[in-house]
User: What shape does this take?
Amino acid sequence: MRTASTALHRLLVERISAAGPITFEKYMEACLYHPQFGYYDGPSERRRTDYYTSVDMSPIFGRLIARQLDEMWRILGRPSRFTTAEFGAGTGALARQILDFSLDELPEFYEAIDYSAIEISAKRREVANSALAGHISAGHASILSEMAEAIAQGCVLTNEFLDALPVHRVVMEKGTLQEIYVDAADDELIERKMPVSSPDVDEYFRRQRVELGEGQHAEAGLRACAWIEDIGRKLDRGFVLTIDYGREARELYDERHMSGTMLAYCQHRASEEFYRLPGEQDLTAHLNFTSLDIWGQKSGLMRTGVASQTNFLLSLARQCNFADLKLDGAEEAGQLRSRLQFKSLIFPEGMGEAFQVMLQHKGVAAPELAGLKPL
Assistant: This one.
């Protein structure tokens, strides 16, 4: 596949020509997070032309998450300070939905909430500061580039964050795991198969008892494993709420996924042209929930449960007799639009089943959460 010439493409070709091939993980990191030319440091408007998130679809999404956070706060004994740390907060859209609703409908919880919107992009932090200005001045929100060292009581929240952490790509050849590297030839970026860059790549599959078939491609999400283990160390008591598209290891690495799950997104089009527009298209791989469970346990996180987004949102909506689906002050056309938007979040053929919700807990004895209750 031919590489389109972008600023990052030219930089990578120069770097690789001088120092040698890099792992796909390093390539993906540069494409997404390069401080000058990375995808997530570009204009947020461009991302909306590439894909939509659940937050974009309806404010009901944030409302229902607020309901779940409120229940967590109550399970923890209604502490005077409940920290919610959202990673990949972007421009603060989800944070605003949660905080606005909590202020209006959950005043006791709002008084306790300390919302940390964590975003590495300086440009997006600026937008988030404006979006959350009222909550910041009230002392209930802050915009950070990284998480504080510890959370006494609260919840770590991610929505479509972990799928964008760089992954290693591998392929099984003649019974041996080979890693895919990115090389440069004639001003083009090309793939090379080489021995794995770290024993941690082999250990990733071994710990999950995954055996790849001959010729099978797969991703190893070592960054996500390191992230969840670190979160477990920093969280004293509370929950981790992960919303993303992905599956358990037994499904991700079965015979139906011989090509892996890595995709590039550009203008709502998914492809496997990973090298076509370095820095100007999104790169993402399905999240492996089994790995979050295993590596989370290393730092004290226990699996609370996993549900589809359909089950999670409908269970929370049912708890309040679906009252949160109604938009106050909206005309009938607005109410209809709101209902249609909510349906897009729960359709089994769309976001509803593609997205999964994983909950983990620490320092809480077998909590029962509304979002995990069967329909």
